[in-house]
Amino acid sequence: MPKAQEFVYAFVGAGDAAIEKVTSLRDAIADRDNGSKIYSDFVTRGRALSKKIKGSAVTKQALAQTKTARAQVKGAATSVGKAVRANAKATRNAATKVAKAS
After folding, report:
1. What pLDDT is stored for residue 32 in this prediction?
2. How far apart are the first and last CA of the chain?
3. What is the reported pLDDT for 1?
4. Which pLDDT tens digit goes with each residue over 9-63?
């Protein structure tokens, strides 16, 4: 069997398994007591996963890069603003000199 066809079958099989899990989960949640337990479990899992992501080295590296980029953009904006003001001042001075010379 070609690998591409095998990949498609694996993808379809994974989708079918996901649908089966969601269907069984929906049936389990329909029972109020069991649904409350499942919800509580989801909260616990979500909290643990969030802490894991927050504390990961990759997340910390991304935050550091974002902070650096933000500082660079702020610095560039300041430089552009200063250049615009200096250019405007030079233009005014040149216009004044031309006006006086006329």
Report:
1. 72
2. 88
3. 64
4. 888 888 888 888 888 887 777 777 777 887 888 889 989 999 998 889 999 999 9
In which residue are the tokens 């690998």 written? 3
Q: Tell me the CB-side half-sphere exposure of residue 69, using CA atoms within 13 A.
A: 6
Who's near 59: CB < 8 A, 6+ residues apart?
53
Residues 6+ apart with CB under 8 A from 45: none
The residues, ordered by sequence, that sit 6+ positions from 25 with a Cβ below 8 Å of its Cβ are 38
What single letter denotes the amino acid at residue 83? A
Which three-class secondary structure string do you get for the chain? CCHHHHHHHHHHHHHHHHHHHHHHHHHHHHCHHHHHHHHHHHHHHHHHHHHHHHHCHHHHHHHHHHHHHHHHHHHHHHHHHHHHHHHHHHHHHHHHHHHHHC
CB atoms closer than 10 angstroms to residue 35: 14
